[in-house]
Amino acid sequence: MKSAVFALCLAAASVCAAKEVSVHDPVMAKEGDTWYVFSTGPGITFYSSKNMKDWTPEGRVFKGDPAWAKRAAPTFDGHVWAPDVHFHNGKYYLYYSVSGFGKNTSGIGVTVNKTLNPRSPDYRWEDKGMVLQSVPLRDDWNAIDPNIVEDGKGGAWMAFGSFWSGLKLVKLNADWTGLAEPQEWHAIASRSRAPSVADKSAGPDEIEAPFIFKKGDFYYLFASFGLCCRKGDSTYHVVVGRSRDVTGPYVDRKGVDMMKGGGSVVIAGDKDWKGLGHNSAYTIDGKDYMVLHAYETADNYLQKLKIMEMKWDATGWPTVDAADLNRYRSNQLPSP
Questions:
Q1: Quick check: pTM over 0.85?
Q2: Catalytic residues per the record (predicted)?
Q3: What residues form the annotated binding site for substrate?
């Protein structure tokens, strides 16, 4: 009987194969000996792992909706988008966004916890509410896709943005729960060829998902160009520029300012993987890694977690090996 079952598994490998972690917009943090991945989903879905390969589903961060979500985004449907997680002053800060697809009725919030371990007696998320809101016809930017970066001088900044006039950077207050006053804003990347207009329409400029990673003397601004969430028609891909100052200007390999459409391609996918993007980046045990989602052609373009080693060429630009898309396979364990 055992041999018959084994034969059936060989004949139907897709059925018997381990289930992979299916995520959009993954970010990662480590507490103790455990890694956690947070992603877009109902209430922010998250997973834990001891080895960055075998992942246990841990449920959702928000049991219900953030209290302020419907005020900022009347069409909010319970899916909390594009988190970013950071450890600061002994606590974990989890930033997130609420919106409606293709709209800039959006807001970015932050929730705080002493621990990421849902089995700890100290585990309790305390939502600090909205940090930033975008309003149609008032703002020519979209308050989604937050990423926090420290400037090495004691200050923290939030990069964000999607479509409209592109990516922005705004300084946070000392508590990391609101904007610094007086406010300090910078435009850091755009694909627009026309004057900025506070319109209800997202416009044609396909840019979003900033992530700023410090390496050596440079800040590297990663962004996603193209279209997400269209299965095989997705054109999402990762680009990068760099600056010696966190506020920019960020330029690509050819010296083109990202405010003028610059951005050097880091990875764009292949016949097996489409829609690569919304990446984050981390240094782990002396190595750098890119974390992102990608749609697998052979699995009806299902979005899957990818963790790829990121190396640096002789001129200091990040590179990844596209073959790692097939090499890295996550394994989703049963829920506890």
A1: yes
A2: 25 (proton acceptor), 208 (proton donor)
A3: 25, 102, 142-145, 162-164
